[in-house]
Sequence to fold (212 residues):
Amino acid sequence: MQDWEIHGRELASCNCVYACPCQFNALPDKGHCQAVVVYEIERGHYGGISLDGLRMGATYKWPGAVHEGNGTMQLFIDDRATDEQASALEKIMSGGDTADMATMWWIFHAMSPNRLETKRVPIELTLDIENRTGSGRVGEIFDVAAEPIRNPVTGLPHRVRIELPNGFEYRVAEIASGKANVRGDIPINEIGSTYAQLAELHLSGNGVLEAA
Fold:
């Protein structure tokens, strides 16, 4: 198994309520799952291949809960990546060189037998995890944005975190209100004033890196 590590950040949003049931081992509140995500690597490698500064994205859709499978997925790779870097990122995001169930990418790939062709496109991401704000753009495929959840009475920002000591994606995520406009091959149209997470990622083929 090739050695790899990724240290970076993510902005993800799905069609569930702010307390995304997946994070609590519960079923999706609408009975199905639609999600978009953008990643940015601060530093990383796949064997001797540097992944520093690159970005990736993905769209996912499941007819039921993620763990029930039969999902559809599509990956997007930064068009600044070399062929070698693009191949490495696609392999990582497809669960390659990864211990069983060690990362979200392994799980999402295993639960998505319907896989559309990976595309290389310009990817943008602006993220302020502490303040729960961010925006991302993946080519002409989708835009996603996050802002703080608001108290319905005062209108003030409402801060919520999810901590997963044994999670396969992150240890702590800031939760926000997300929205997305998706124009890609996977029809996604239910993300708006719904769950969004902003998190640091410290991952390897064996899962979350505790030292991070």
